[in-house]
Each structure stands twice: as structure tokens, then as C-alpha cells.
Amino acid sequence: MEYRKLGKTDIEVSALALGCWPFAGGQYWGEQDDNVSIGTVHAALDAGINFFDTAEGYEAGHSERVLGRALVDRRERAIIATKVSPNHLKPDDVIAACEGSLRNLQTDYIDLYQIHWPNHDIPLADTVGALQRLKEQGKIRAIGVSNFAVQDFSEMLALSECATNQLPFSLLWRVVEHEVQPLCVQHEVGIICYSPLAQGLLTGRYATADEVPDGLARTRWYRNDRAMAQHNEPGCEAEVFAALDAIRSVADEAGAPMAIVALAWVKQQPAVTSFLVGARSPEELAWNLPAADFTLSTAMVERLSAVTEPVKAKLGRNLDMWMAPSRMR
What is the model's pTM? Predict the structure, then answer.
């Protein structure tokens, strides 16, 4: 397992991180057995994964509580990242939210505390002040953000040391490359990649856009007449599925499953610290573990970038996977 520094900190995290949102179950993920989730955390630790990402907003803290139970007696082996919700960004609310997460996680410190989404009704400086107080008190070790596009991210960098920016990043979602990734490289901020398999597209699970269920087909890859879509764009389904055919060919040449090749590509991108795999069971985790040690040649990285360039061009500079106009600025 490869380990990387979290931004400019001395905190070392595994390049493959476990995304714990599925542990929440609920409307988005459906029924989930807490004991299976706990077993998945233990399997991750045994495989060398030490980085776990959750949020207070995942089913009212249920994901945090499950992770906390899983790490009883193993806390010292784990690096925990969690997030404060955008409706909790007033200073007093930040403090209260952090205390709630500490209780949920059964710990007295959080390694990486992230702003989950910007809230443009609350001055960012006020939020940052509360985060810095928490850091001074030893309740958090590092400050990060999530879903911060170039304007908000630039403001954050002017206010505070920022270890990470968590964003969607995959072969099919390369919007981060336009503006945010260069800032991350310049300021030594790590990118934590969510949806690195493009919500299943990069596993080869779907042969056509019509096979993708409506709950997933609400992103900007798909037509705006899909049942749950909240954007005003025509999508880029033709470009996506043409790219998938080309990615599959490269994967065949590499002798690896398409998902492993896709994860290796994102792992090898500039400024990337970790990519999140949202496994619901030890078996699902095992499918993705080979990506931790798989490396693509420079030529294959460049070919994969070339074949997905039409998707990148069609999506433009809007970092928001779901909404247009964007909620990110």
C-alpha cells in the first residue's frame, strides 16, 4: 500500500481510502447491515488502508457512528476525515458539529475536518476562525474543504492553511484540471477524489445510458429529461460511451479490469493524495484493492487522457456533477 502526506502536514494516508457514506444506508444506499460495514473497516485496516472518510450529514451521523464502533480499540491505526455540513458553518455551529462528530466517532480528535460544501450566506472567515480554534484545542489536526471551486478555494487559501480539497475526479470527470488542480499543485494541497469510478460507469457495468438507473442518471453526463435530473443541459452520453469503449481497449492491453485501470489513472494525477472507494462489504473492497499497487505506463496514462478529452470538453468548467447552474463558484 502506498502512503502519501496529507497536504503540508506530517499525516500519512493510504492512497486508497475507504469512503464510508455507504455505511449510512438510508434512501440513497438502501438497507445496509452495520456489522458488514464494521467488517469492511476491519478488512480495510488489515489490507493497509488507514484513511477513512465520512460526514456528519450522512444519514444524521449514522455513518460516523458505525465508523466509530468499527475503530474501537483500533483508533490509533486510523486517519479519520469527516465533514461539517454547510448549514453548520456559523462559528458556534461549527464547534457544536465537531463535538457531535467526536461523540459519534468515539474519539477525542479528528485528523482531517472538512467543510462539506460552501455556504455563501456565511462569511468564510467566520467559519475558518472556528476551525482554527478547534485545531488550537487539539480537537482537529488538519483543516480541509470539499466541493470548493476556484473562487471559494482561492478565498480559503488566503485565509488558512488548507490540507485538502475533496472533489469529483475520474477519467470521465476531469473538470478539476481546468482551474483547481493547478492551485492545488501550486499550494501543495492534496486532492481527495470522490466518485473515481464515475458512479459505476468505469466498472463497465452499463452498456448504454438507458441501463443506468435514474438515481444515478441525474448527473450532467446524462440528458436533462432523465427523471431525477436537476440540470438544464443535454448531457454527453455519446461522448461518455465512446470513451468507455476506448478505455476498455486500453485496459485489455494493460491486462487489468477497467475499474483498476481507471483508479490507477486517477492515482497518478498531479496533486492527488487519495481516491475514495465506497465499498459496502469486504468483498466489494477486495475488488478494488489491486488498484493500490497497480501502475500505468506514462504512455497509457496519456492515451487514457486523450480518449476522454471529448467528455472533458463537453462538460466545461462547471465542477458540480449534478447542477447547472453550478452550486460551486
Answer: 0.95
